[in-house]
């Protein structure tokens, strides 16, 4: 039986930030589950950059089924956690069940990979204080308000926490996360 990794997300998550780690971690041999507020087909989005725009644009992305609801998650069954970005973290941070899941991963020092707006979730459970992180650059002040030191880099590693800015940084993000996973939670 292979080690299990949990991805927590919801509607309006960035398609690439869910599906790239989902596929890459499965390729590595991990059993990957997607959890959301409810078991349903999720609607992801595509964020892109257009000439002349001050920020990213958003278009409909892929749909994908959630394997389980947050209320069904037993964090003890998982060796690591992935937190994608997009707009989903804005509302997911208010979900009590999800906050319990997040806290459990940080309390047990399991590997966590977060990207883009995903750090809004870890900030909601006060798990960024005293850490070095990166995130989508517009969140620099949010990261500082959460007590973190913000670094504008493709990937930032702080213990078992790996953070990244956005989908263009996927290769650096997953390379660093897999280095930690191979040491702390290898595929059996």
Automatic annotation (TrEMBL):
Among PANTHER family, the record links this protein to: DJ-1 PROTEIN, DJ-1_THIJ_PFPI FAMILY PROTEIN
Q: Which SUPFAM superfamilies match?
A: Class I glutamine amidotransferase-like
Could you tell me which residue ranges the DJ-1/PfpI domain spans? 4-178
List, alphabetically, the Pfam families matched.
Answer: DJ-1_PfpI
The record's comment on protein family reads: Belongs to the peptidase C56 family.
Name of this chain's protein = DJ-1/PfpI family protein
Instruction: Give the organism, scientific name.
Output: Streptomyces spongiae
